Inverse folding.
């Protein structure tokens, strides 16, 4: 599995109520675009991009010249991407330090295979994860 696929899997396994106030068990991806973009950027580099979606900005990555949207599954229909260059500060405005630390730590643990049965995502124990 490639690095992008590994990070995608780690993000999806790590989303929880501690990494987004919009998180629900039915829609774990909700509200994770900014924080997921930042954590993916930390692990994979590349660029941060944004696209307007209604009244909000949606953040995602460009890695090795390819658009990678780790949170596109939160939308019912495909987005019309604008690929507007953005940066960490703008993406961080979509989250907060606590959510960033929570998701960043959970992803690092997942990727490092350091999970020992305790907290495997943001705000859930391994037995609670959907």
């Amino acid at each position: 599995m490639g690095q992008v696929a590994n990070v995608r899997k780690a993000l999806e396994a790590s989303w929880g109520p501690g990494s987004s106030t919009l998180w629900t068990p039915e829609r774990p991806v909700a509200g994770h675009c900014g924080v997921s973009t930042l954590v993916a950027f930390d692990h994979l580099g590349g660029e941060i991009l944004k696209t307007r979606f209604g009244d909000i900005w949606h953040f995602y990555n460009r890695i090795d010249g390819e658009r990678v949207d780790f949170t596109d599954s939160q939308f019912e229909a495909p987005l019309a991407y604008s690929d507007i260059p953005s940066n960490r500060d703008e993406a961080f405005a979509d989250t907060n330090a606590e959510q960033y630390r929570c998701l960043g730590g959970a992803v690092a643990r997942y990727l490092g295979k350091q999970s020992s049965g305790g907290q495997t995502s943001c705000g859930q124990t391994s037995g609670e994860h959907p």
User: Anything to note?
Assistant: The first strand starts at residue 47 and ends at 53. The chain has a mean pLDDT of 89. The radius of gyration is 14 Å. Strands lie at 47-53, 56-63, 66-68, 84-85, 119-121, 124-125.
